[in-house]
Write a structure and sequence with these properties.
Layout lengths: L1 E5 L3 H9 L5 E3 L2 H5 L5 H11 L5 E5 L5 H12 L5 E6 L2 H12 L4 E6 L2 H9 L4 E4 L1 H6 L4 H15 L4 E4 L5 H10 L3 E4 L1 H8 L2 H17 L2
Parallel strand pairs: 1-2, 1-8, 2-3, 3-4, 4-5, 5-6, 6-7, 7-8
Bound molecules: erythose-4-phosphate (E4P).
């Protein structure tokens, strides 16, 4: 079971890494753009925070296979444990097939159907990222989609890992592990919501208040 935090915010990453439970960081062009810093600099800063063996997933910007492949190799040279996200589609699949034959780990992202997931696995992608929240946002069932992907991989004996993405809250994290995903990536507030509970805070405050009043 792998946990990733979906952000390029260094303060959030530093706090999440300090928990000692993280398998890495995932980013996408929108997440990177929010930092308003050069891509390479942002990834380098993230890689300095993410301790080995944590992965730093970063997505290519190119829209044709040749550009994706050259970007992937360039990004890998930016920092240790940088791994490549490729957008699902013909060009991304071509790039994944080429990169996997060179032993370069890839994650096919923006996956929204079982056929897409099967093709991604066949192309040798190490991970696929189906977008749970965005499927739910349009009134379909992200859980059903991702459960079907997990089942199809089992039925077909495919070893590609499923990392559920676009997570909207702790409940969805639990649902995803229940349907059998290998990993989830979540925005930092979702990780915080997993960590905290009002009853825990109330209980701890009661302990400390009782202790203080006892004067021992
Ligand atoms: C993975 O990194 C995805 O890009 C990310 O989880 C998308 O999340 P969103 O749907 O909240 O933008």
């Amino acid at each position: 079971m792998e946990l990733y935090v979906d952000t390029a915010d260094l303060a959030q990453i530093r706090e999440a890494v300090s928990l000692g439970i993280l398998d890495g960081v995932t980013t996408n062009p929108s997440i990177i753009a929010k930092q308003k810093r050069p891509f390479k600099e942002t990834i380098g800063s993230i890689a300095e925070l993410v301790q080995a063996p944590g992965k730093v997933w970063c997505e290519v910007i190119g829209t044709d296979a040749d550009t994706m492949v050259s970007e992937a190799k360039e990004m890998q040279a930016w920092a240790p444990r940088v791994v490549v996200k490729l957008p699902m589609g013909a060009e991304g699949v071509k790039a994944a097939s080429r990169l996997s034959k060179e032993g370069i780990e890839t994650n096919m992202t923006l996956v929204y159907s079982v056929p897409q997931a099967i093709i991604a696995a066949k192309a040798g992608a190490a991970y696929v990222s189906p977008y749970l929240g965005r499927v739910d946002d349009v009134g379909w069932s992200g859980e059903a989609l991702i459960g079907d992907i997990v089942q199809a991989y089992k039925d077909l004996g495919m070893n590609t890992k499923v990392i559920a993405a676009s997570i909207r809250g702790p409940r969805q994290v639990l649902d995803m592990f229940r349907v059998g995903v290998d990993a989830v990536t979540m925005a930092y507030p979702v990780l915080e919501a997993m960590l905290n509970h009002p009853m825990t805070e109330i209980g701890l405050n009661r302990f400390l208040q009782d202790w203080k009043e006892a004067g021992i």
